[in-house]
């Protein structure tokens, strides 16, 4: 399953509330591991952590692209790497 959102991307969104985020991989790691929302002061920011939990439990795979970052999750690992291509917004590829 592929879902795309051609908005501003994770880095731009999270830098609104945490300007110190250095790059796309750091932004994706924060998005999947911390409770932080670009829509502060709203109490949001848990959605991607829940997605990651379900991906692991179901033994699926998720590749989440934003900017130059690719955050990949499977049952055993979570890793972010920098890609040479720039993705505008977000592309989520779920394999099950």
Give a brief description.
This protein is of the alpha+beta class and 96 residues long.
Q: Strands, helices and their partners?
A:
Blueprint: E1 2-5, H1 10-15, H2 24-33, H3 47-58, E2 61-73, E3 78-95
Antiparallel strand pairs: 1-3, 2-3
What does this protein structure show overall?
With 96 residues, the chain is an alpha+beta fold. Helices cover 29% and strands 36% of the residues. It has a three-stranded antiparallel β-sheet. A hairpin with a 4-residue loop joins β2 and β3.
What brief labels describe this structure?
96 residues, alpha+beta, 3 helices, globular
Strand order of the largest sheet: 1-3-2
Task: Name the overall outline.
Answer: globular
Average pLDDT taken over every residue = 92
The description of the largest β-sheet is:
3 strands, antiparallel
- Sequence stretches where pLDDT stays below 50 over 5 or more residues: none
Tell me how many strands there are: 3
Query: Structural class of the secondary elements?
Result: alpha+beta
Order of helix and strand elements from N to C terminus: EHHHEE
**In which range does the helix fraction lie?**
25-40%
